[in-house]
Amino acid sequence: RMMLGTSTTSSAVVCTRHQNPGQPDDWWMVTYCAKPLLRSPFAYPRGLLGALRPYRDPVRAFSLRRDEDMAMRIEHYEFGRIRINGREQHADLLLTPTRVLPGLWRREGHVLAIEDLDAVLAEQPRRLVVGTGAWGRMRPESGLEQALHQRAILMEAMPTAEAVRRINELLDLGETDWTAALHLTC
Fold it and tell me: How far is CA 114 from CA 29, 42, 117, 160, 181, in A?
């Protein structure tokens, strides 16, 4: 564990190194605490982590791999659940190589429209990977592929399990100009 830039009046950053048995590389968990500590971190029974626990903002916690600046990795998908960098999500979501945007709200039930993708299309990706659900129930709107083609965006629609494998392939290849919309249930 490393503690960077902390005092009782300023914010704190904590770096924790994790090693997984049987895994070739380790990873770092970085936690940023914007609120000042009430007293010295060493006065807390559990050290700095005990001091930060009441103030941890999970939105600001992210993992760093040793060999990459900020690597996203989809670790697991099953009906209704997906785990990305150790954080579990239970709602449909949008992804970019650096961001997870939970709570994908579609204009019309199980139909994906161009308006549903506004949050990620502003970044002008070259590829959109659509996870249509465990059984492929969500479908792209009839004109979506043409609208994306006009913006020079290639759409790949497939069941979510296959989409997760495709996203991890893109990450392994170092691709950075993609986005994804994933339906986690049916």
Answer: 35, 52, 5, 19, 11
CB atoms within 10 A of CB 83: 14
- Of 38, 27, 46, 32, nearest to 4 by C-alpha is 32
Residue with the bigger pLDDT between 3 and 123: it is 123
How many Å apart are CA 61 and CA 56, to the nearest integer?
8
Q: pLDDT tens, 72-85?
A: 899 999 999 999 99
Residue 91 CB coordination number (10 Å): 15
Region 43-56: what's the mean pLDDT? Answer: 42
- Which one-letter amino acid corresponds to residue 102? P
